[in-house]
Amino acid sequence: MDAQGLHDLLAGKFGERVSAFQADALQPWSVVAPEAIAEVAAFAKADPALAFDNLMCLGAVDYPAIKESVPRMELVYHLYSYTHRHLHVLKVMLPREGASVPSVESVWGVANWHEREVFDMFGIGFTGHSDLRRILLPDDWEGHPLRKDWVDPEFYTGMHVRPTAQMAERFQAGEKIGIGPFDFTPFNAHVDE
Amino acid sequence: MSTVIPPVDDKERGGDSLGAERQGGARGGSSSLVTPPHDYGWRLEDLDNDEMILNMGPQHPSTHGVLRIELRTDGEVVRAARPHIGYLHRCFEKHAENVDYPGVIPYTDRMDYVAAMGNSLGYALAVEQLMKIEVSPYVQAIRVTVCELQRIASHCLAVGAYGMDIGAFTPFLHLLRDREKILDLFEWTCGARLLYNYNWVGGVSHDLPEGFIRAARQFLRDFESVTFPEMMDLLISNKIFIKRTAEIGVCPPALAVSYDLTGPNLRGSGMPRDLRKDAPYMGYDKYEFDVKVGKGEFGPVGSCFDRNWVRAAEMAESAKLVHQALDALEKMEKADVHEKVPKRVKPPKGEVYSRSEAPRIQLGYFIVAYASGINPYRVKVKSPCFTAMSVFHILARGMYIADIIALIGSLDVVLGEIDR
Questions:
Q1: Contact of B97 with B378, CB cutoff 8 Å
Q2: Residue A139 touches chain B, beta carbons under 8 Å
Q3: Chain B residues within an 8 Å CB radius of A117
Q4: Nearest Cα to B236, choosing from B322, B149, B320, B297?
Q5: How do the domains of chain A map onto residue ranges?
Q6: Portion of chain A with pLDDT greater than 70, in percent
Q7: DSSP 3-state helix, strand, coil percentages of chain A (rounded to 5)?
Q8: How far apart are CA B21 and CA B25, in angstroms?
Q9: DSSP state of A128
Q10: Least CA distance to B416: which residue of chain A?
Q11: Dist. CA B179–CA B159, nearest whole Å
Q12: Which pLDDT belongs to residue B37?
């Protein structure tokens, strides 16, 4: 089935909550209302004509306000059907701050780790997730680095993340920064201000 | 690791005084630690008298990288397992946003560092799809050659290291010997043994050198006549090996699909699915090869043995593919491998999710080009090892501790790709 047919099936079932079909894209997508995504996912897997038994990829993309575009966060679900060998893309548009969507973990098991990664990197919450915690970054990390407004922290657990102005001055004065035989002098030490 | 078990408030536990007594003073000291932001899933009070928490890793030789597994054990039996990943996280996706499109390729090599050809190929295919570049048949044949050679090399390491994990040392040496020969071929071609930067957007970095075809054929002859049968006799049909692996780690097909296992892991569960057949790319539809599927000869379908057997059997299929690609190359005129390489890689606005059957399972790139010129706006990698690891806690339940090693090896994960 082609993307238009897949979208029509979904839209026929969910009406307003599956809207805005983007047909001219390289891989056409349907936009799903945030609160409906778990229902749509369960339907997409159970319906024999759709039979999306595989969640290939779940990723997020951050779009801060650039020019006149609306600031938003997009969740992108790439579905594949081993039965019918067709694929479809679902998108969920979210506000950039404090967003939360229902988890699809109960539909596709693999979503558990994908959603943890999205939470880790973007700070999007997933309601009904069994184990929502950081996955790639340390537990005590603050912030969500793949957001476009991310700035590197100055310290991490008391250590300087980047060389400081003082370190750069000592380096320029020819001093070795390190303990014993070890030389920790950052090769790119520079004065920030 | 005292931080593994978080201190728990007495009131929250609902008045289980027995648990508090069992703990004794052990909890007193740890409560001054930073309170973890989440529940780790089990608490010391939940554990039975005979149970204990055992940390396997991160520096365990059989975990194929820096993987820590928290095991809840009852004697030798694993009641529950919980993998902890992220020790090797190198911010690949963040880096990719800050370099231009061709600049991402060396980073992709460093994800799965034992089979780097497949990674850069997947990325190149994705960007080519965005830019609507069609590479010439000559470049396609070169890519098939190197990628299938890389698949043999990768499976050599996977099968060999798997044997070594569970106690068979000799096959590892035999297989590594042949892997080295493939790496020599690659070094001859592009100058690097592991991290190639070979598959570029729209082409490859170097043409195959003079005499490559002859050398590759010689390698294949050695491999097919000596190493492959040797491996099948020495390791795969070894009675001890079969007894050790054929009954454990059984993954039914429905579970495999739900957890997005792909490649040899999925085929080991009895699903005859191969992207090279289902959605041919790079001219794979012109080649003849069989899709090897786990048969469950010695136990249930989808066991550790089946996954590993698929990998071993696939090496012969890859050798067939390389032969055909070399035949095609011999018939073709030499062409410029940089012919379609764009001067400036700047795709139009759009997004694509592209999959390819990398040696280590099915790798996906989700690339968004969005009004930011020469840098990708977002590169998301669907790492197949990541999804393979996410099913681990289900497969590991009820196993013996020693079998955990056999399970990790049979999933063939590389932590560099999981953590990216």
A1: yes
A2: yes
A3: 386
A4: B297
A5: 3-127, 152-193
A6: 86
A7: 25, 25, 50
A8: 9
A9: T
A10: A136
A11: 11
A12: 41
Q: Which helix (H) or strand (E) holds B84?
A: strand B77-84
Asked if A27 and B370 come within 8 Å (Cβ–Cβ), the reply is no
Per CATH, the homologous superfamily of domain A3-127 is NADH:ubiquinone oxidoreductase Nqo5 subunit (3.30.460.80)
* Domain ranges across chain B: 1-37, 96-364+371-376+407-412
Calpha distance B161→A185 (Å, rounded): 39
My answer on whether omega of the bond before B348 falls inside 30° of 0, hence cis, is no
The angle that helices B137-165 and B116-131 make with each other, rounded to 10 degrees, is 150
Tokens of B129: 């799809």
Residue labelled with tokens 């039979």: A51
Q: Do the Cβ atoms of B294 and B302 come closer than 8 Å?
A: yes
Instruction: Classify A74 as helix, strand or coil.
Output: strand
CATH fold of the domain at B96-364+371-376+407-412: Cytochrome-c3 Hydrogenase; chain B (1.10.645)
Question: Which chain A residue is nearest to residue B279, measuring alpha carbons?
Answer: A85
What tokens were used for A67? Answer: 């020019």
Answer whether 0.90 is exceeded by the pTM: no
* Of the candidates B259, B107, B279, the residue with the CA atom closest to the CA atom of residue B195: B107
B45 — pLDDT class (breaks 50, 70, 90): low
Residue A53 and residue B257: Cβ atoms within 8 Å?
Answer: yes
* Disruptive mutation site among B84, B259, B278, B293 for chain A (greatest number of A CBs within 10 Å): B259
Beta strand segments in chain A, E = 18-22, 29-32, 54-63, 72-80, 87-94, 100-102, 125-127, 155-156, 159-160
Residue in A63, A78, A110 closest to B259 by CB: A110
Calculate Rg over the CA atoms of chain A. 23
Q: Does this complex have an ipTM over 0.90?
A: no
Measured between alpha carbons, how far is B365 from A57 in angstroms, rounded to an integer? 9
- Distance, in Å, from the CA atom of B98 to the CA atom of B369, rounded to the nearest integer, reads 13
In terms of CA atoms, which chain A residue is nearest residue B377? A61
Range B278-297 average pLDDT: 86
Q: What is the residue-averaged pLDDT of chain B?
A: 82
**Which residues are bridge partners to B392 per DSSP?**
none
| Closest CB to B382 among A26, A57, A89 | A57
Q: A141 touching B, CB under 8 A?
A: no
What is the chain B residue with the closest CA to A56?
A: B260
CA distances from B277 to A141, B70, B241, B287, B301 (A): 43, 38, 31, 10, 22
